[in-house]
Amino acid sequence: MRLVLTWLINAIALLAVPYLMHSVDVTSIGAALVAALVLGLVNTLIRPVLLLLTLPVTLVSLGLFIFIINGFMFWLVAQWVDGFHVDSFLSAVGGAVLYSIISWALSTLLLKNSDG
Fold first, then answer.
1. Which residues contact 39 (CB under 8 A, 6 or more apart)?
2. Backbone phi, then psi, for 12, in 5-degree steps?
3. Where exactly are the structural domains of the chain?
């Protein structure tokens, strides 16, 4: 049940990003649900490999390169999912940051009672 709730929270966060950044577009709730699912899968399967491969660059940049990796994941999902569009790579980096902040805030507010 917690996994489904987290997925819904991420979809809501994805729906909120276009209101703050006009260069990100989500056309429907269905597109947001699919994009949140694909984004979760990509972050689970591909992101750890990219983090490992780019570890030297990440260390030299004091961890700031992780923003680029997150933006790439966000942009990649926008390329795959119909109804989810990002104008540019820089917009993807900003959208990924906003998405993370909104998702974290909603998860903190909504999931704190279900922990115990």
1. 10, 14, 73, 74, 77
2. -65, -40
3. 1-16+28-85
Question: What's the CA angle centered on 70, arms 24 and 35, to 5 degrees?
Answer: 50
CA distance 80 to 92: 14
C-alpha dihedral (73, 103, 86, 80), degrees to nearest 10 = 50
Tell me how far apart the alpha carbons of residues 13 and 103 are, in angstroms, rounded to a whole number. 5
As a whole number of angstroms, the distance between CA 14 and CA 26 comes to: 8
| The model's pTM | 0.89
Answer for the pair 86, 39: CB distance below 8 angstroms, yes or no: no
Instruction: Classify residue 6 as exposed, middle or buried by CB count within 10 Å of its CB (0-12, 13-18, 19+).
Output: middle
The region that residue 69 occupies, defined by phi over 0 for left and psi between -120 and 50 for alpha, beta otherwise, is alpha
Q: Where are the beta strands (DSSP E) in the chain?
A: 24-26, 84-86
| Structure confidence by residue, pLDDT tens digits, 31-73 | 999 999 999 999 999 999 999 999 999 999 999 999 999 999 9
